[in-house]
Amino acid sequence: MAPAWPIPNSDRDAPPKLAMLVEAPRAAYGLAELATRWRALGEAPRGDGHPVLVLPGLFNSDRANIVLRRHLRRLGYRAQGWGMGRNLGARTIGADGGRLMERIAALHAEAGAPVTLIGISLGGIMARIAAHRQPEQVRGVITISSPFAGHPSATNVWRPFEWLSGERIGDPAVLERLAEAAAPLPVPSTAIWSRSDGLVNGLTCRTDQCRAVEVRSSHLWVQMRADVLAAVAQALAEQRGA
């Protein structure tokens, strides 16, 4: 069924304002739906105990991903938050991403196994960059509503990104990192995206070089959508098989 509001026809367009205005009620609906499906989601394929690092979206912290981590732990994965507070872009992980790379290296050394990175929105862009730079420490990448394959202006949150990160979307360093994120990864990758996303253009959240799973969801609280939790569990199971 098609969404009841306009969606972008091009990966150059930001989502229409109407889609942005209905983000909050759609997020609330998704949370209510999760309550009815939570028990059934626990029947997903069991995990193998390997480490999973969950990266939050812009201005979010590990608290935003409590439900996702709890879901993964009950399936048998060693899911952890990134432990760096709110995601303020380069202000949090460093201009070269050094703090995030150190976190991944430490988790890899502690577990003695490569780490799966799951990133929501901006966190997904960071996850893909990390996988390019430290492929021997990364088992796979799963992005959730992460606009890694388009220009930052194809979102309704580029101004908050500039305010919070202290960077400009046209800065060469920002565009260089985005190009790095968009390049095909050396590890298995899955992109979970929504065509009716009200904050970022869903068409920029996937490419033909990674497995793409389309869901119907708002951007807000997307990581607590039942369909997203199911897709994450399936992606992890397929990653294990690969």
Q: State the secondary-structure class.
A: alpha/beta
Strand order of the largest sheet: 2-1-3-4-5-6
What would the principal axes of the Cα set say about the shape?
globular
How confident is the prediction overall: mean pLDDT? 95
Q: What integer value in Å does the Rg equal? A: 17 Å
SSE pattern: HHEHEHHEHEHHEEH
Helix content: 40-55%
What is the distance, rounded to the nearest whole angstrom, between the alpha carbons of the first and last residues? 32 Å
The CATH topology name reads Rossmann fold
Overall tally of domains: 1
Largest sheet: 6 strands, parallel
CATH class: Alpha Beta
Low-confidence stretches: none
Instruction: Tell me the name of the CATH homologous superfamily.
Output: Alpha/Beta hydrolase fold, catalytic domain
| Beta-strand content bin | 5-15%
Count of separate DSSP helical elements: 9
How many β-strand stretches? 6
> What is the correct CATH architecture?
3-Layer(aba) Sandwich
What does this molecule look like?
Strand 3 (about 115-120), helix 6 (about 120-135) and strand 4 (about 140-145) form a beta-alpha-beta unit. The chain is globular and about 40 Å long. It has a six-stranded parallel β-sheet with strand order 2-1-3-4-5-6, with helices on both faces. Helix content is about 40%, strand content about 15%. The mean pLDDT is about 95. It has nine helices and six strands. It has a single domain (about 15-240), classed as Alpha/Beta hydrolase fold, catalytic domain (Rossmann fold, 3-Layer(aba) Sandwich). Helix 6 crosses helix 8. With about 240 residues, it is an alpha/beta fold. The longest helix is centred in the N-terminal third of the chain and has 19 residues, at about 25-40.
